Amino acid sequence: MSTKLTPPIEKLIEQVKQATELGSSYVIEGHATKSAIWKPEKGDLLSTKALNQVVEYDPSELVVTVQAGVSIVALEALLAESGQRLSFEPPLYAGQSPENKGTVGGMIASGLAGPRRPWSGGVRDSVLGLHLISGRGEYLRFGGQVMKNVAGYDVSRLMVGAMGCLGLITQVSLKVQPLPQGVSCYSWACSTTELLDRYAGWQRSMNPISGLAHDGSRAYLRLEGGLDSCSLFASRNDLTRCTGIKNNGDFWAGLRNHSLPFFEGDLPLWRLSVPPLTDLASVLESHSVSYLMDWAGAQYWVRAEQTDFLRQLVTQHGGSFCSYSCTNESDLNVAGSARGSVALGDMNGSILLIHQRLKSAYDPNGVFNVGALHESF
């Protein structure tokens, strides 16, 4: 690939340098579909919309390189033409217009992944390399376009989930995977405990599971892979009689994009992240708390007012939490769980110190997304 910087990138670098000289800051924005998830405290808008090019795509190599302003919808359409996909199912949030459902830059910065994440890996696992404008206006390149390209600290993956606080991502290389031959979805009535017990047995051997969820009353299972492997697994586990709900496949799209009725409730929405196969259901039910389990018990979406209770619950199970709560009417134009400000779980001690040092190394003057990840930076 050419190392010559394009005019849009040169312009962004100049803007960052000016901000450094003036002591001002920027809020990075693509489609603004995640602007209600993290709320920088201050700054002028720095748009990535001009970074909208597919740099390189060779389906035979299972790698695609795109600029940060490319839409996730457009990227997925491009991959689908060659029978490929992103493995981690990034959520698509409805923005100001129907076609704007998130950009690649926001996808990397947020690090959000869908129901397939425990079986196919998260956003970080797919990042091979990226280009970045630091808070000093430096144009930095990390990683590459092949798997074995990292010597030392993997800065590319460090940017996943950093909320744009460490710099402006301009380009990213991602590994992709082939589309499965078959997809089968099943649903049946049972308790969350029963579902997790059954899944523990399924884990003892190879299986085509790519989604396991529970909404408090029903289990949802998705199989992806070869036609024979999906059919064989279903018949061996007596799943062929377990549909019971029409358009069960729509459930997985709704869970991925947070468009299920559960995400439209009035109570504060919380995301609990805990070790896999953790059964929080009985505790939540005993407190009359509504929940939606995902990731085979590693992720719970919860509707509740009880902040202290949830904090104590995840601490007991060695997990973490964050809250998604709608704060004002202007946030209502963004769908699903992206409709409010996020209060991240506790960040203190050595973890906070590491984050502060990283911020100091890549954005010492506080140019990017101040306060988006933590109030101290």
Terminal residue distance = 34 Å
Number of discrete domains: 2
Strand order of the largest sheet: 3-4-8-6-7
The main β sheet shows up as:
5 strands, antiparallel
The CATH architecture classification of the largest domain is 2-Layer Sandwich
Structural class: alpha+beta
Number of helices: 12
Q: Using the CA coordinates, give the radius of gyration.
A: 21 Å
The level 1 CATH classification of the largest domain is Alpha Beta
Short structural summary:
With 377 residues, the protein is an alpha+beta fold.
Describe the structure.
- By secondary structure, the protein is an alpha+beta fold.
- It folds into two domains: 7-178 and 356-362, Uridine Diphospho-n-acetylenolpyruvylglucosamine Reductase, domain 3, CATH 3.30.465; 182-344, no CATH class.
- Helix content is 28%, strand content 24%.
- The protein has twelve helices and 17 strands.
- The protein has helices spanning 7-22, 72-81, 104-110, 117-120, 123-126, 155-158, 192-202, 227-236, 248-257, 281-286, 307-316, 349-362; strands spanning 26-29, 44-47, 54-58, 63-67, 84-85, 127-133, 139-143, 168-175, 177-178, 182-189, 209-214, 218-225, 269-273, 290-294, 299-303, 320-325, 341-344.
- Strand 6 (127-133) and strand 7 (139-143) form a beta hairpin.
Question: What descriptors fit this protein?
Answer:
single chain; 377 residues; alpha+beta; Uridine Diphospho-n-acetylenolpyruvylglucosamine Reductase, domain 3; 2 domains; five-stranded antiparallel sheet; 12 helices; 24% strand
